[in-house]
Amino acid sequence: MTNPATAPLADPRKPAILIVDDAPDNLGVLRSMMLRQGYQTFVATSGDRALDIAQRVKPDVILLDVVMPGLDGLETCRRLKAHPATARIPVIFMSARGDTADIVAGFDTGAADYIPKPLRLEEVCARVRAQLRLRSSTDTQSEQADRLRTIVNSMDQGLLIVEACGRVQYANPACDRYLGYAPEELVGLSLKDLLDCPEAGCCEGLDAIGNGTREVKIRHRDGGLRAMDLTMTPMHATDGLFVALLHDITHHKQSEDALQRAALLDPLTKIANRRHFDAFLEKEWQRAIRNAQPLSLVVLDVDHFKLYNDTLGHAAGDVCLQRVARTLQDHAARPTDLAARYGGEEFVLLFAETPAENAARLAEMIRTAVEAQEIPNPRSPTSTWLTVSVGVATIVPTQLDAIDNLFVCADRAMYAAKAGGRNRVEATIVGTAWDVVQDAALY
Ligand SMILES: Nc1nc2c(ncn2[C@@H]2O[C@H](COP(=O)(O)OP(=O)(O)OP(=O)(O)O)[C@@H](O)[C@H]2O)c(=O)[nH]1
After folding, report:
1. Could you tell me the strand order of the sheet in which 337-343 lies?
2. Which atom of ligand 1 lies closest to the CA of 310?
3. Which of 126, 188, 384, 409 is 20 to 30 A distant from 428 in Cα terms?
């Protein structure tokens, strides 16, 4: 008989069998049989002792006699099942009571098997082996489930299990950070409601979202939109369910947007650069053709800027260009106006849907606004303050016209302003190619 206080711990390499029977003869026979099978054995002659040993050594299988004085087998089994440390150990009853009611009562206590007495030892061994196999596969499954749970819980990505209709069945803890909802709050919500879809009806079902990865905007609980990569994968084992993986790319998108914005800006003056202006002009040019609206181009050049640099230094010249740029920007008030630094000390400004007289008036306002800042240009022969010469060209373009022609005319007007004494505005209306065609037809 094993004393629970001194019972050795079970050897993890060998299956451990606890045999409980009040008849020492039975114990002896069963024990030798189990030892022959290569198992580690523990024995107890009463229910109480069996409980002590089971808690201490946590055997892999318990062979339990039903009829015993004191705590009988049924009650012992109930107590084993009630204790978390021993609840999962399979119990095999051994009993001479073979009535259906006895067998049912045995299984109702939570037993895994019921062997009739007299015991056929080969059969006992086979049933113990079967329980050990079952136990090992259950252990493997629960170990795998534990491992999976740890991975999913510690994942940096948000993981959701969703039904085809979009209803969330499960969410991992990372979803809290991604969406602002605790996992249990997400259960029952619809993924479709969290997605911000520009196209109506685009998220009617997850089939519409489709498998694979796509960039989506998801509404966080704080009301803000987060850019995310959403990867949908059908769970093959369970029809109609999808695994949805969320990867927050908001920061990535923000820096991408910042880069894109930076690519359109002049680094010194922070207004649009030449590339941006050319693309903008192309779009406005086409719109002006469609709507037969006037388009005005302003070209502005700082007067005697070389003298300014030579006298006050290049750094002061840079600050001066920034102030001129700001003045231009302040006059590009409408969304269809765009001020840009076109190169060196030359600036341009586009006024869409603006006739010649309005554009000339705006150009004059810019000229006076620069002069009014009283930026000293000590060696300028034109003025003691920094001044600009401005050319304005206006056209109502047609398909026959070229943007270059508008630029040439605005440049010529600006040079005319320089030639006319600087610090002035010269404006011109560009005759369109259509006028030339009509004139030719007349003569
Ligand atoms: N500080 C500074 N100077 C620049 C920059 N880009 C061009 N410049 C200077 O602008 C000056 C332009 O000189 P010019 O083309 O001779 O014309 P200007 O002296 O303004 O004379 P007018 O145009 O005839 O009135 C040159 O000295 C350039 O070095 C810049 O980014 N910063």
Report:
1. 337-343, 346-352, 295-302, 388-395, 425-429
2. 27
3. 384
Q: What is the interface pTM, i.e. ipTM, of the complex?
A: 0.94
CATH class of the structural domain 158-249: alpha beta
Q: Which helix (H) or strand (E) holds 98?
A: none
User: For residue 242, what are its two tokens?
Assistant: 């999808």
Domain 264-440 sits in CATH 3.30.70.270 = yes
Domain 16-150 fold: Rossmann fold (3.40.50)
84 phi and psi angles, rounded to 5 deg: -55, -30
Distance CA 189, CA 299 (A): 57
Residues 107-165: tens digit of each pLDDT: 999 999 999 999 999 999 999 999 999 988 888 888 898 899 999 888 888 999 998 88
Distance 386 CA to ligand 1 centre (A): 12
CA 345 to ligand 1 center in whole angstroms: 5
For the stretch 1-32, pLDDT in tens is 555 445 555 566 799 999 999 999 999 999 99
Q: Which residues line ligand 1 (CB under 6 A)?
A: 268, 301-307, 309, 314, 317-318, 321, 344-345, 418, 422
Q: In terms of pLDDT, which residue wins out, 433 or 356?
A: 356
